[in-house]
């Protein structure tokens, strides 16, 4: 946000503004004269909505929700082990346990997301501790790696060179600008006009089992983040201690990778359905509200969809209010829709499988743009 008004972004990310402000003294340069004269109607209306959110208690947590969510993750893990124990490490138990463990891992992914966004405890310290426990010990990933990637994404979703989640041109070209630019410059080594087909082989199956493992390991060792490394080690010690006696070392490793393979499909489709079909562009220096609505979309709400997606089906509201407890996101959605209608901004919401299909349709369209620019531009 260098050179921009980052007021709404800063407000959105920090629920303890007094505490965070202490760290800003060293960054102080001076005051901008008449900064409030550039406050547009959209900014004014969104800041009123933000004030209503804070005053109406929508930032307050229902502790029981998160307790039950964590307990159901642990119950799935216990059930997976009991299946293997009861059937004495049979192949049928292997596959049933993998499904149960993949479900636990997917749900733990949504759980760590809550702690990472400081939306569970009022204390920064407690959120960080539980984030380390859930993403490290339960999921075998780095807390700091997740923060490093995810907050860049939230600050500038789908903005080229600022959102790491759209920096995937070595395999896929997304949006309109990137494929046109690459095609006109004769760049790229993949047959991008077929990317909507090879996505099924290189996207969901490999994102977690291959790419995220490599990136996690590289990040932890490059930064010498030994705390995150230790948490990851505790996961693997527990996993091989539980399943090694039944399947051996390589069998337990196979169970782990198959679990990740299943989880990766779940994770990829859910996390990409809300952003990839939307605009992917260079920096436009838009206000917070307009940026999030242009790059984010929702999926219809239902008890199953809410559970299956970890309430990321309310991606618009989550991006506008990232520290809001997710069980409250649906409550603010009607007011967000009204504000969009007032300012003639699109509020996109689709059925779950339509949203999944939008990913493939976007890849096909972007591939065709690249092909035309490359061969006919």
Automatic annotation (TrEMBL):
Bilayer topology term: Multi-pass membrane protein
Cellular component annotations (GO), alphabetically ordered: membrane
UniProt domain Fatty acid desaturase: residue ranges: 94-349
GO terms, molecular function: oxidoreductase activity, acting on paired donors, with oxidation of a pair of donors resulting in the reduction of molecular oxygen to two molecules of water
TM region(s), chain numbering: 64-84, 91-110, 196-214, 226-244
Localisation per UniProt entry: Membrane
One BP term from GO: lipid metabolic process
UniProt keyword list: Lipid metabolism, Membrane, Oxidoreductase, Transmembrane, Transmembrane helix
Family: Belongs to the fatty acid desaturase type 1 family.
Primary location: membrane
Species of the source: Magallana gigas
Name of the molecule in the record: Fatty acid desaturase domain-containing protein
Domain of life: Eukaryota
SUPFAM superfamilies from the UniProt entry: Cytochrome b5-like heme/steroid binding domain (SSF55856)
InterPro entries found in the cross-reference section: Cyt_B5-like_heme/steroid_sf, FA_desaturase_dom, Fatty_acid_desaturase
């Amino acid at each position: 946000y260098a050179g921009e008004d980052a007021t709404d972004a800063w407000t959105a990310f920090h629920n303890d503004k007094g505490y965070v402000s202490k760290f800003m003294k060293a960054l102080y340069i001076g005051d901008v004269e008449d900064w409030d004269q550039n406050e547009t109607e959209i900014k004014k209306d969104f800041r009123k909505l933000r004030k209503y959110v804070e005053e109406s208690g929508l930032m307050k947590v229902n502790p029981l929700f998160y307790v039950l969510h964590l307990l159901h993750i642990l119950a799935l893990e216990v059930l997976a082990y009991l299946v293997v124990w009861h059937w004495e490490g049979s192949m049928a138990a292997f596959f049933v346990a993998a499904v149960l463990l993949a479900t636990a891992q997917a749900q733990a992914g949504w759980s760590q997301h809550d702690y990472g966004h400081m939306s569970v405890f009022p204390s920064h310290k407690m959120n960080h501790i539980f984030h380390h426990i859930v993403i490290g010990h339960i999921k075998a990933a780095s807390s700091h790696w997740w923060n490093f990637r995810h907050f860049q994404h939230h600050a500038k979703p789908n903005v080229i060179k600022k959102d790491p989640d759209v920096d995937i041109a070595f395999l896929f070209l997304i949006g309109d600008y990137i494929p046109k630019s690459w095609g006109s410059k004769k760049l790229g080594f993949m047959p991008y006009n077929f990317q909507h087909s090879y996505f099924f082989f290189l996207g969901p199956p490999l994102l977690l089992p291959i790419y995220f493992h490599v990136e996690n390991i590289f990040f932890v060792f490059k930064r010498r983040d030994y705390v995150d490394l230790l948490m990851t080690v505790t996961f693997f010690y527990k996993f091989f201690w539980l399943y090694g006696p039944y399947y051996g070392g390589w069998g337990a490793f196979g169970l782990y990778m198959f679990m990740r393979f299943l989880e990766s499909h779940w994770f990829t489709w859910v996390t990409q359905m809300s952003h990839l079909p939307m605009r992917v562009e260079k920096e436009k220096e838009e206000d917070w509200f307009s940026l999030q609505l242009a790059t984010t979309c929702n999926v219809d709400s239902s008890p199953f969809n809410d559970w299956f997606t970890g309430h990321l089906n309310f991606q618009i509201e989550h991006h506008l209010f990232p520290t809001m407890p997710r069980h409250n996101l649906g409550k603010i959605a009607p007011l967000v829709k009204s504000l969009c209608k007032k300012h003639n901004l699109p509020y996109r919401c689709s059925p779950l499988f339509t949203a999944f299909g939008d990913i493939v349709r976007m890849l096909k369209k972007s591939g065709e743009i690249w092909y035309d620019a490359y061969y006919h531009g």
